[in-house]
Please model this.
Amino acid sequence: MQDLAVGLAMGLGALGPGIGIGILVSKALEAIGRNPDASNKIQTNMILGMAFAEAIAIYALVVALIIKFV
Model:
């Protein structure tokens, strides 16, 4: 039962950030395509947003590890 909880915590915890990062990159590439002169600023903001979204997945990993080992 504990392994199921770990799998669900990690699987569902990575689903949201994965979808969010995909949408973020898609919209950033669309914006760069429309305005190539602003690509540096867009890319910087995109990478910052990806880091915040990835942090959510890392929190899910921490929760899964706590469930597994505590």
